[in-house]
Amino acid sequence: MLDMRAKWRDKDQLERIQFERAYIIKRLAADVVEAIAQLVGLLSIVLQIIHRVQPVGQFVLVEQMMSRALGGMSGLIIQFNSIDQDIAAMVDFQRFMRLPRNLNEGRKLLEPPQTIELRNVSFHYLKNDKLVLSDINMKIRAGQRIAIVGENGAGKSTLIKLLLGLYQPTRGQVLLDNVSLTDINKSSWHSYLGVLQQDFIKYRFATAYENVVYGDVQRSYDEQHYQRSIKQAEASAFIDKLPKKRDTILGQWFEHDDGTNGVDLSGGQWQRLALARNFYRQAPIVILDEPTSAIDALAESRIFARLFGKHGNTIIAISHRYTTIKKADVVYMMQNGKIVEQGSVDELVARRGEFYKMFASQIE
Ligand SMILES: Nc1ncnc2c1ncn2[C@@H]1O[C@H](COP(=O)(O)OP(=O)(O)O)[C@@H](O)[C@H]1O
Ligand SMILES: [Mg+2]
Questions:
Q1: 320 CB near ligand 1 (under 6 Å)
Q2: Where are the domains of the chain?
Q3: Rounded distance from Cα 197 to ligand 1 centre (Å)
Q4: What topology is assigned to 104-192+283-364 in CATH?
Q5: Which pLDDT tens digit goes with each residue over 318-348?
Q6: From the CA of 155, how far away is ligand 1's center (Å)?
Q7: Centre of ligand 1 from the C-alpha of residue 131, in Å
Q8: What pTM was computed for the model?
Q9: What is the fold, at CATH topology level, of the domain defined by 202-280?
Q10: 209 φ, ψ to 5°?
Q11: Given 46, 116, 220, 234, which residue has the most CB atoms within 10 angstroms?
């Protein structure tokens, strides 16, 4: 199956390259033909003038007629070329339409899985053959609190995208209760997840309140639950200070009913709101990809202490802060797409290896 897909990919790539090459060659040929025609035409009229077959005045007329005719021709050629480009774009479109639409296919998960596993997973993005993940093995059990750490570019966010089923492994498998994610109904998997990615959505047309309760649109809005979520994310204080409190629209381009403009938030405030939205969702499996990078270390530590303190949820968190990671059950340290160390924080510190090197300044 994977081999088939690779084959298709190569074939599409080839088609595209062929189209692009044909485009360049045709344009070049058109330019050459145009230049030659112009040269020959002008040369012949100059010769005729020299031999007094034509009066000098004819030169201007002929030159103008020719440049008009050639202009029309090159317009035609450009149009032909743009057809080529359109066809090349069609190749991309067809490739997109051929991707499996498996969001609602496959076996439905009737409850959150007891194990989430990556087995020998390697992955590279389509346009680049360099492996972003190589031979990753990871087994997460329900209720575990997992931290993933590593430098920027180590592959942490990519690993999360594979777990979500947004990308499929180039090699290896993602397994939920030993069933491959490719055979599982993705919508049912996603219904158990509360994911906060680095590039989360900001609903600028909506109020602060709506930005939180959009976390779970399946249920009717729950006031108590809203209050709990904004407290947990430490968002209550700044929401109360907004011009219209929780009914403030969070985009300057939008107006309230009374004609006043909405307001924008700072990066940290948006993150707190996105966290509150995530908490409002009450998902059994929570995935947080650097959710508090714009929030100060003390607040992050408090937010995570609350999150990790509540047993029951499975939590997978990516963070660069030692105080946050410290509370995890298992830490995975990634480097260049590989897991180089794993274990409890105490074990990793005692090992004095890569983890220790990365966090030494924060451990003191
Ligand atoms: N959509 C993408 N297409 C191509 N390469 C990507 C894409 N997203 C990330 N990468 C590359 O994959 C590598 C890992 O990125 P990422 O998973 O975001 O790392 P991290 O989250 O640990 O900072 C980086 O080299 C990055 O440039
Ligand atoms: Mg990342």
A1: no
A2: 2-98, 104-192+283-364, 202-280
A3: 13
A4: Rossmann fold (3.40.50)
A5: 988 888 888 899 999 999 999 999 999 999 9
A6: 6
A7: 10
A8: 0.74
A9: Rossmann fold (3.40.50)
A10: -60, -50
A11: 116
